[in-house]
Amino acid sequence: MDEKQMRYTKGSNAALDQEFQNAVxxxxxKLGETTLFWRFGLRWYQMPLNQVQRVFRxxxxxxxxxxxGGQNFVIERLVLILKDGSEVVIHIGDDVQPAAEALLxxxxxxxxxxEYGVQK
Length: 120
Known about the structure:
22% of the residues lie in helices and 49% in strands. The protein has helices at residues 3-6, 14-22, 97-110, and strands at residues 7-8, 24-26, 29-31, 35-40, 43-48, 52-66, 69-82, 87-94, 115-116. A 5-stranded antiparallel sheet has the order 1-5-4-3-2, with helices on both faces. It has a 4-stranded mixed sheet with strand order 8-7-6-9, covered by helices on one side. Strand 3 (29-31) and strand 4 (35-40) form a beta hairpin.
C-alpha cells in the first residue's frame, strides 16, 4: 500500500471522520474501532485493521550527541505487517514507553484476531 492510499483526509468519508473523532490517542497514534490513525509531519494517515496480519513494537535507543554532552532517547515504533506482506512502520513517539505499551495492549484487547510479536 502506498503513502497516498494511507493518507487520511478529513471530510472525504463521514464514517471515517467519526471514527477519527472517537479514537483513543496514544502519543502520535490514535486507535479507532476498525482503523489505526497516526500523525507524521503535518499529515494524518490511516490503516484499516482488517488489512493487518501481524503487529509488534520496535524499541530503538539512540544516543544524541550535542556540543555540551549527550542524552539518550528511546524511540517507540509500531510495526504493522500487512496481509500482502508489506511492512508499515509507525512512529509512536520518543520516550513514551507507557503510551506504547498501552497502545499494544489496547490493540490486543480489541483485536485478538491479529498476530502479535516478532515472527520466529
